Amino acid sequence: MSIPEFSLRLQRGITGGFAPPTPEAIITITGIPSQNLLNITSAHRPKGTPSLQDAVPKSISATDAHTAALVNELKDILKSIPTESPPGSEDIYGLDTSIAFGCDELMWQNGGPQGCGHGESSVKATDEDKAKFKRAVQIVEDLLAKDA
Asked: N or C: which terminus of the chain has fewer CB atoms within 10 Å of its end residue's CB?
């Protein structure tokens, strides 16, 4: 099983109000099948501080069957769940987290580019959708936790 070429950005801290949201963490993953690598960077904001720390980069092998299975599971989950409408109107998954994922066959993003306001989405996530999104977030965290 191989990985697709893809890019992903997960942001924790997407709900704002009058002011834009303050991210707690930003994780980016780029899948490079020609090099059998996932390039991963993560930046976190310690509690009580105003900004993210410098991003920490690493690369992990994409040849590991478990890694490839996680990436493909993530893609399949995102294909199957809705995004809010209009974009950025509401955090329909209730996790204060957004994922933007792009590959040849799928472009998926929840929580608009400026985060989510206090509007209302015409699309609602079911409990099953919410469980799937929670699993998608866990997959990103599992990939981040893998040793370089």
From this structure: C
Count of domains for the chain: 1
Q: Which domain holds residue 79?
A: 6-145
Q: Provide the strand spans (E) within 20-110.
A: 25-32, 37-44, 56-61, 97-103, 106-109
Residue 133, domain member (yes or no): yes
What is the pLDDT at residue 65? 92
User: Would you say 100 and 83 are in contact if contact means Cβ atoms under 8 Å apart?
Assistant: no
Listed residue (82, 90, 86, 83) closest to 16, CA to CA: 90
Q: What is the spatial distance between Cα 88 and Cα 92, in angstroms, rounded to a whole number?
A: 10
- pLDDT per position as a tens digit, 132-143: 999 999 999 999
Which token pair is 4?
A: 């697709």
Give the predicted TM-score (pTM) of the model. Answer: 0.93
Q: How far apart are CA 87 and CA 137, in angstroms?
A: 19
- Is the residue at 1 inside a domain? no
